[in-house]
Design a protein that fits this description.
The complex is a heterodimer of chains A (120) and B (244). Chain A has 120 residues and is mainly α. Chain A contains four helices and no strands. Chain A has a domain of 59 residues. The two termini of chain A are 32 Å apart. Chain B has seven helices and two strands. The termini of chain B are far apart. The chains are: A mainly alpha (120), B mainly alpha (244). Chains A and B meet through helix 2, helix 3 and helix 4 of A and helix 2, helix 5 and helix 7 of B.
């Protein structure tokens, strides 16, 4: 692996990896694993874990957005000496970003990297 | 008596051996635990796995399934990173549940460093792979030009809030859980010290609650590691496929 990735770029080694994984998949399915072909079911039911994950995220995403917005504004104010102005603007922007985060977690808005796939 | 029970004391960092603190000791223990599980678990290479081998295989397949679901097959380039992060956080959380031990992940500087590692990987890989095209992440499709600056600012703040929420979630859950445990366990001794025999009987109630919370904390320890790794996958997915 190390030798293969050192002479090719990152692009090549990525293709290489997926090629090797495909071959491994084929070899494994030819082997007829005793799993019955269900392919890696996680120990805890994924739906439950995803539900918990979403719940944990909902509570913290909004706060993070507001905190980052307020912090950015505060730093800009200190840097530019425009004391209340940037903080007010960025706090509002941060609130908007926090709401956007929450909507993304709840599946009401699209992720920036996604087009047609339904959000997680 | 009340002064003897200090729920914050368990988070104090104390030097153990020269520059090595108790936090560092438990980090080393976590890494040693993960390494031992995987090395010993994969040593047998039995067709029908034993207990340790099936634990190692389950954790591999769990993380693999998570990456396939969120980042697709190309996400497997990040498998080593996601797997290491998941196992490290999981072991730190679980080791912290041993009474008297130290919880590494209850310090925000540790979780923030982990989150920063994730976000810097996303930024670094995104720019290395897509160049300036990575910036399309901040420009959603079909937005009219006159509100584009506003939307881009919101998207940038949303992106910057990721390491904060990622680190604060893990840190706050571990901190709050351990304080709750300590407080409720402290009620048992405080009741019996203050009320004698009656307090000892009454102390059964907080003791039962402590047992319940301990079980809950085991669930939280696993789920927080899962959430951390899942979000890592989703953010890395943005680095793999920004824009469209």
């Amino acid at each position: 692996m190390a030798r293969e990735s050192s002479d090719g770029g990152p692009e090549r080694s990525d293709d290489d990896l997926s090629g090797r994984l495909d071959r491994l998949d084929k070899a494994l399915s030819r082997h007829g694993t005793e799993k019955g072909g269900q392919g890696g079911t996680p120990p805890i039911s994924t739906r439950d874990a995803q539900g918990f994950a979403r719940a944990f995220r909902l509570s913290s995403e909004l706060i993070a957005g507001v905190v980052v917005g307020g912090g950015l504004g505060w730093a800009l104010d200190r840097w530019l000496g425009t004391t209340p102005l940037a903080m007010i603007v960025f706090l509002l922007l941060g609130f908007a970003a926090g709401v956007l985060n929450v909507m993304r977690v709840a599946g009401l808005a699209r992720h920036p990297g996604q087009d047609d796939r339904p959000p997680l | 008596m009340a002064g003897a029970i200090d729920p914050i004391h368990q988070f104090a960092i104390t030097p153990v051996l020269g520059p090595v603190t108790n936090s560092a000791v438990f980090m080393i223990l976590a890494v040693a635990g993960v390494s031992a599980l995987l090395l010993i678990g994969s040593r047998e290479r039995a067709l029908v796995p034993g207990r340790l081998q099936s634990l190692a295989e389950l954790s591999y397949e769990f993380v693999r399934g998570m990456i396939h679901q969120t980042a697709g097959k190309h996400g497997m380039v990040f498998f080593p990173l996601v797997f290491s992060l998941f196992m490290f956080v999981l072991f730190c959380n679980l080791l912290g549940l041993i009474p008297g031990s130290f919880t590494v992940t209850s310090h925000i500087i540790v979780t923030f460093a982990l989150a920063l590692l994730v976000i810097l990987t996303v930024i670094g890989y995104g720019f290395a792979k897509h160049g300036l095209g990575f910036l399309k992440l901040f420009v959603p499709h079909g937005v009219p030009g006159y509100i584009l600056p506003l939307v881009v600012a919101i998207e940038v703040i949303s992106f910057l809030s990721r390491p904060i929420s990622l680190s604060v979630r893990l840190f706050a859950n571990m901190l709050a859980g351990h304080i709750t445990l300590k407080v409720f366990a402290g009620f048992v001794t405080m009741l019996s010290a203050a009320l004698g025999g009656v307090g000892l009987v009454l102390g059964i109630l907080p003791l039962l609650l402590t047992i319940g919370i301990t079980a809950l904390e085991f669930l939280v320890a696993f789920l927080q590691a899962y959430v951390f790794a899942l979000l890592t996958c989703m953010y890395l997915n943005d680095a793999l496929h920004p824009g469209h």
